[in-house]
Amino acid sequence: MKRIFLFFIFHFSFFTFHFVGAQNPFVQTWCTSDPAPMAHDGRMYVYTGHDEDGADFFWMQEWRVYSTVDMVNWTDHGSPLALESFSWADDRAWAAQTVERDGKFYWYICAHSKLSNGMAIGVAVSDSPTGPFKDAIGKPLFENGSWDHIDPTVLIDDDGQAWLMWGNPQCYYLKLNRDMISYSGELGRLDMTEEAFGGPIMSKREKGKKYKDSYVEGPWLRKVDTSKFKVPSSKVYQLLYAAGGVPEHISYSTAPTPTGPWTYAGEIMPLCDTKSFTNHCGVADYKGHSYFFYHTGKLPHGGGFGRSVAVEEFQYNPDGSFPTIMPTDEGVKPIATFSPYQKVQAETMAFSRGVKTEQNDEIGVYVTDIHNGDYIKLQNVQFEGNTPKQFAARVASGLRGGRIEVRIDSLKGALLARLEVPGTGGWEKWQTISATMDNEIVNSKSSNGKCHDLYLVFTGRKGPKLFNFDWWQIEGAQKSLVVEDGGTGDYKAIMKEEATLEAHTVFVPQDLSAFNEKTPLPVLVWGNGACTNSPWEHFKFLNEIASHGYLVLATGYIPVEEKPYQGPMSTTEQQIESIDWAISQNADPSSPYYNKIDVKNICVAGMSCGGLQSLYNCADPRIKTLMICNSGLFKNSNRAQAVGGMPMPEKSKLKEIHTPIIYILGGKEDIAYENGMDDFHLINHVPAFAANYPVGHGGTYRQPHGGEFTVVALGWLDWQLKGDKQAAKMFTGKDCLLSKREGWTIEKNKKMKNEK
Ligand code: FUB
Fold first, then answer.
1. How far apart are CA 27 and CA 365, in angstroms?
2. Rounded to two decimals, what is the model's pTM?
3. Which of 99, 232, 727, 742 could form an SS bridge with 719, CB 3.0 to 4.6 Å?
4. Are 299 and 454 in contact (CB under 8 A)?
């Protein structure tokens, strides 16, 4: 009887935890605490503590990192920082926060110091938001033997001054130097008054007297964006903190400067039954949404020392103040779709049951502790745009393996694929295994952009651990690849083949639902350097442009690796095929692009030989603008330098240009400089702009997100194809912004000078 009862309790609590559609806590593999969010380069990162399973105190050993682009599918980046990273630390890896400055990431932590036998503030540094991080100074940044020194928060103010604040029960501050790893001046102390925090610190409360509140710990310092909110100058800085003693709630105070005077502003997250007697918050704005992170003890085996991070979306009041934010089990809604046609790290998940993650130097983080009945769920998965063909996964098993069942919409949903995982001869002996997918089910369910939950359900012998799991991928009938996380623009992009456009590569936002007749996608038609029949050199540049809301149609086959394409050269006609295709897709009610393409705003562009192809096609009346990169027509005097197969229009071709044109060149070192500048000087019947950046013929296309050339190309496209007035400032006016941008030199013809 007792057994049945216990079974019931366990399963009841698990089912209530999951089947109400719970998204909070949003990490289920480990207990995570003290969330510190940071939005950076198109991703939301959250830096957390790690509560040990079954602990009876905050015996915390390491910090962890998670990130997402859509706010529901989170990738576990493991633990790039632990007590061992600090030679002086021996215990209590407590709350921390990370900030980026000048391309470096500074992670301010607190830990117990064996030097002072108190808590100390330390700082780690990395070139990447996910590490590896190392102790930046080899000693605590601040300590004096007191146990107060916990929970650092950091703010880089608009004037460049970085402030570090921390403390329990006293809130301290320091002014960091520009290097972020040293400080100037004396240790500051906030006035812990009733006016500032609703009451004195807990130990100084007068018996019997009622107070509104009290500061306890976990400060989060932020500044209100005065360009967005009508905030009085006396309330520009906000300090959020854990308040009111144990159990804690979250309150905040406001001030005209980081050092005060602070004024109590009220509760944000009131006391609720979160199963944790501490709370700890962090706030971040991301892609037009605002998020409040905190922690609860709500994992099935969690509690006061087994906390887990959670998140809620909220809207600031018109004066930038906070509304009341209540903890929910539902959490937040996805803000982007998830493409399964990419290599997905197994540790990317919206929800999981049973599994854990581990990491090693060889493959990084992977999913482990997989038993019969465990599963991983992904949310808002967009199958449309390709036809699923194969499910592939990289797995390892030191025992007998098991199975991965790929199901749609629910744990017991239709079976899309069943992958048999064999014993591979070791828990780290990895094999990639594939299974055919049932695409009829997917196709029947995924029309009209409908998204799905995807479940990877693990089955096998009951009892033992089955296998380890590194990554999975759904291969579509058409090849596709997510380049550099989809790009940094507002619309994560994908690079793919289209069955109806042979020998071309399409770069396009993954989620087309944001585009329609009113906001259609302008088109960039692209020809490649050396007239190669694949954009293998330019895919980062082109993908980045697509992520800013463009349909990019590149000549040639999809590059599967960043290796030179070896097949025959492309033709100039392929650019015309791109234009024809865009127009026909926009008019075809059965196309996913129906009424979503801005066929009146087409730029034809290309690099080197691709630039010559573009100039060859310049008379096409459907073109709105031209962008000629590292290219220009050969003069009679240097035609002999041309490589066989290049289109060779005479300079008289330039007369056929009927649109504004920009030359983006690599400075005098660029072999196309002379030809390009000669073209530019010959064009006086349409506006022409020449921009040079001293990198030579190769441009910056292969740098992350296409480097500087992308910035200028996007500015030109936003102005010419979207009519963006802000973007126009890069090119118009006497002191146009590009003339002031580091490294660039510019020239304009007379017609361009007249452009407003
Ligand atoms: O995680 C350990 C401690 O608990 C933190 O430093 C405090 O903010 C509280 O959340």
1. 15
2. 0.79
3. 727
4. no
Amino acid 21: pLDDT: 67
Domain 343-476 CATH (choose: 3.40.50.300, 2.60.120.260, 3.40.1390.30, 3.40.190.10):
2.60.120.260
The per-residue pLDDT for 485 is: 85
Which homologous superfamily does the CATH classification assign to the domain defined by 480-633+643-753?
A: Alpha/Beta hydrolase fold, catalytic domain (3.40.50.1820)
* CATH 2.115.10.20 given to domain 2-314: yes
- Ligand 1 cavity residues, CB under 6 Å: 33-34, 49, 58, 94-95, 150-151, 217-218, 242, 278, 280
In the chain, where does the domain assigned CATH 3.40.50.1820 lie?
Answer: 480-633+643-753
- Where are the CATH 2.60.120.260 domain residues in the chain? 343-476
Which residues lie below 8 Å from residue 650, measured CB to CB, with a gap of 6+? 633
Q: Residues 175-227: pLDDT tens digits?
A: 999 999 999 999 999 999 999 999 999 999 999 999 999 999 999 999 999 99
* Neighbouring residues of 737: CB distance < 8 A, sequence distance ≥ 6: 729, 730
Asked whether the predicted pLDDT for residue 491 surpasses 60, the reply is yes
Task: State residue 8's pLDDT score.
Answer: 31
DSSP-H helix ranges across 370-521:
439-445
**pLDDT tens digit sequence for 679-699:** 999 999 999 999 999 999 999
Mean pLDDT of 738-744: 96
Q: What is the mean pLDDT of the chain?
A: 94
Indicate the top mutation candidate among 48, 52, 58 to test ligand 1's pocket, ranked by most ligand atoms within 8 A of CB.
58
Q: How far is the CA of 48 from the centre of ligand 1 (A)?
A: 11
Mutate to test the pocket of ligand 1, among 50, 94, 215 (most ligand atoms within 8 A of CB): 94
- The rounded distance, in Å, linking the Cα atoms of 531 and 503 is 13
Ligand 1 atom 8, closest CA: 218
